[in-house]
Amino acid sequence: MKTITVAIAGNPNSGKSTLINAIAGTNLQVGNWPGVTVEKKTATLKIDDLIINLVDLPGTYSLSPYTQEEVIARDFLVREKPDLIIDVVDSTNLERNLYLTVQLLELGIPIILALNIYDEAKKKGYEFDIEKLQELLGIRVIPTVATKKEGIKEILNAIKDFAYGFYNITPKKINYGEDIESSIKAIEENLKVTNPLLLSKYPSRWLALKLIEGDELVMKEVDLIGDETFLQEAKSHLFKSHDEDIESMLADIRYGIANGVTRDVLKKKDGKRVDFTEKIDRIVLNRYLGIPIFLFAMWFVFKFAFDFSAPFSDWIDTTISGPVTKWTFHALTVVGSPQWVISLLTEGVIAGVGAVLVFIPVIAVMMFIITLLEGSGYMARVAFVMDRLMHSIGLHGKSFIPMLLGFGCNVPSIYATRVLETERDRKLTALLVPLMSCGARLPVYVIFIGAFFSDHAPTVLWSLYVLGIFMAIALGFILKKTLYKGFAPVFIMELPPYRVPVFRDLMIHTWQKLKHFVIKAGTYIFAVSVIMWFLLNTPYGVEKENSALGRIGKTISPVFEPLGFGTWEASSSLVAGLIAKEVVVSTMAQIYVKEEVEEEKEGVDKEKGFIDDLKDAFLSFGFAIRDAIENLISGFGIKSLSANEEEEQRPLKSKLQGIFTPLTAYAFLAFVLLYWPCVVVGIAMKQEFGSWKLYGQALVIHSLLAWFVAFAIYQGGRILGF
Amino acid sequence: MKLSELKIGQKAQIISINTKGIIKRRLMDMGVISGEVLKVEKIAPLGDPIDIVIKNYHLSLRKAEAQGIEVEVIE
Predict the structure, then answer these.
(1) CB of B18 within 8 Å of any CB in chain A?
(2) If we measure between CA atoms, which residue out of A527, A659, A656 comes closest to residue A535?
(3) Mean pLDDT, rounded, for A180-185
């Protein structure tokens, strides 16, 4: 058995992930690089007697130490010393891609270059002298069309040939010109004498180049400060002969090499000029049409994400809270389980499983859409169009998508922050996303608006959404100046050509995200649901007022006194809302009007038999598919959420009218809108950012924000005489 | 002349990059180096950022960054 480690490197948009999916398929393991939010994909393949460990490096344009991705890629290459690099290159843009290849060559690791998107380049009339490219760089070159799985077998064979020593690949040392070469030599010579240990740890040519560049990270790592005499001496003639800084000089040289090689190996004949991308962009990014088209596209994305998934979520919800709960209840009763066990299993455990499952449709659809937007190239256009606006609150244009999706559900939005380029952007966006009023808050609004503002319902509802957006702008502004000072995100971004994404890639990606969510987040959500049951039901059988939740509510209720709703009922409901904001309503219903609701439920359910229920569940799944498709075709509507709940909640409404005034009701709604993001958002944050810290920040910041806003509304309203 | 002052459709050659640190490095990594010829292709509907073609691909950057790039119009 022989084992070989192969790193896959390449520019973003070079088709790297498609190539990996084509090579490894379902073998791919997706995780994060330690301590950061950058995705790490690995796979282990076994071909005959050979074990290949594939490691996908983040897509980068360069190996300079300025983005997290670049540092990760570079550290892996330098420290883990893979046996081989597969460098995925976009054939239609050879020169810019070779800039990275030139830097990879500095490491002295053998390279197989996948000349990807070869079909498109051919169509454009590009002709490559592959032999010459191999010879000039000392690498192996294989044309590939990853989307059609062409060239994959050849790559695997090349890896095998290399592993067994049938094919030697010795990377060329490319001449960087006399000035640089003499500096490299001087440094290498000096280190050989003074610090041989260092040279055994790092590729010597690479290390010398980094020292010449004055790369801060490398300097720190090797314990040099940069003004050592030997370094100064080695570099001195560079300053004399060039007035540029050394970094620019090296970039020039590397691009010079990339340019020279490209000219030597690439002949451009007159091909079909398929400027598909330009044609689309001329319309999509048009000065006048741009915004309307963009808004339409976003409307469609949103609609697709939520209207399409909602019927499936509803189906899961009704099936679990209906037949599944009912039959578990019956089964347990027959067996003679004690009351509290039945309650724990049905209201705690099954409800917990349900809470996880209802997220599946929305996360699946949303991940599909995000991958589609990214893969097609439209995500970059969204950023291009929206950057001006998002930049004003210290964010990158790409933040728009997570924020927009936040109006449907904040949870997948947190996952969607991954499209952003820097950790700071991701965190800042994730902190602002919960201010986008999600679908779960709607039931709360609907009840209160129905009870207090039925004459001005649309205005009041609208005002809450606007309040959320306004608070996001304000909070973005504050965070930008305080916690997330850092440097404002730079916007230097490629607008990649439009490409039709491969369906297989979309499915693989969606599946991976989903699996991750169900396994990791599922456990937590489940646990939280069970904990909530205990809070509501211990000691078992007491009045809600004396349950653990009731007592928590009572203890913290003075905090809400200045906001106008300092009752234990309101504060208990708010605490329960930590699970999901719509739980505020169901808890209120349990507390205020417990008896009526329960009686009603029991009465209706018992009549149907098991088989009927099973049939119903299947039938309603069919209806869910129909509804999803109908929703996609028909107009935009929040109808599904509000209409049928109206009737059921009448007793709660009249209770509320006795307890709240319009002013306190509005303050309460503002509080619900802004206060602590639900625990599922927290779990997503933990998953995405590796620690609970961000959720901790969110809990504190949002609760304070909610408190002050509700305070201002209530006290201000009182002064104004409401 | 500065890159940010070019009009849509104008071609120019880069004379120098007068920013520092990360931004400069990033620009250079993306192929924005002196001597290179670029063309301003589009300006975003809200007036910023801009879209240029350089080294045979489309690159978008904000006017703030484009201000630090000195160019000479050639067409």
Answers:
(1) no
(2) A527
(3) 90
Q: Give A542-601 pLDDT, tens digit per residue.
A: 777 788 888 899 999 999 999 999 998 899 999 988 888 888 888 888 777 754 444 444
CA triplet A358, A360, A365: central angle to 5 degrees? 125
User: Do residues A263 and A317 both lie within one domain?
Assistant: no
Which residues in chain B are closer than 8 Å to A286, comparing Cβ atoms? 45
For residues A576 and A698, state if they share a domain.
Answer: yes
Query: How many Å apart are CA A341 and CA A329, to the nearest integer?
Result: 10
8 Å CB contact between A90 and A11: yes
Cβ of B30 and A494 within 8 Å?
yes
What is d(CA A587, CA A40) in angstroms, rounded to the nearest whole number? 41
Strand boundaries in A535-671, DSSP class E: none
Show residues of chain B in contact with A96, CB under 8 Å: 30-31, 55-57
Let me know whether A111 and A215 are in one domain: no
Min distance B4 CA to chain A CA atoms (Å): 14
What CA–CA distances, in Å, run from A245 to A233, A234, A238, A528? Answer: 16, 15, 9, 57
Last residue of a domain, one of A249, A268, A287: A268
**CATH number for position A86:** 3.40.50.300
Indicate if A690 and A639 belong to the same structural domain.
Answer: yes
Q: Is residue A496 within 8 angstroms of chain B, CB to CB? A: yes
φ, ψ of residue A129 in degrees (nearest 5)? -95, 90
Cβ neighbours of B28 in A, within 8 Å: 247-248, 251
Per-domain residue ranges for chain B?
3-73
- Indicate whether A288 belongs to any domain: no
CB A404 within 8 A of CB A385: no
The DSSP secondary-structure symbol of A108 reads: T
Q: Strand A84-90 vs strand A2-10: parallel, antiparallel, or unpaired?
A: parallel
Interface contact flag, A93 B57, Cβ < 8 Å: yes
Q: How many CB atoms lie within 10 A of CB A447?
A: 23
Model confidence at A604, pLDDT cuts 50, 70, 90, reads very low
Please report, to the nearest 10 degrees, the dihedral formed by the alpha carbons of residues A503, B51, A248, A113 taken in order. 20
Residues paired with A660 in a beta bridge: none
Tell me how many domains chain A contains: 3
Residue A282 lies in a domain: no
Same domain, A133 and A238: no
Beta carbons of A423 and A37 less than 8 angstroms apart = yes
Q: What is the pLDDT of residue A703?
A: 94
Mean pLDDT for chain A overall: 86
The residue from A268, A287, A305 where one domain ends is A268
Backbone angles phi, psi at A42, to 5 degrees: -135, 160
Q: How many CA atoms lie less than 13 Å away from A35 in the CB half-sphere?
A: 4
Question: What would the CATH number be for the domain defined by B3-73?
Answer: 2.30.30.90
List the one residue out of A411, A413, A397, A437 whose CA is nearest residue A294.
Answer: A397
What's the domain range around A136?
Answer: 2-163
Identity of the residue in B29, B49, B58 whose CB atom sits nearest the CB atom of A64: B29
- Both A214 and A347 in one domain: the answer is no
Which residues, numbered 343 to 402 in chain A, qualify as contacts with chain B under a Cβ-Cβ cut-off of 8 Å? 380, 383-385, 387-389, 391, 397
3-state SS string over A336-366?
Answer: CCCHHHHHHHHHHHHHHHHHHHCHHHHHHHH
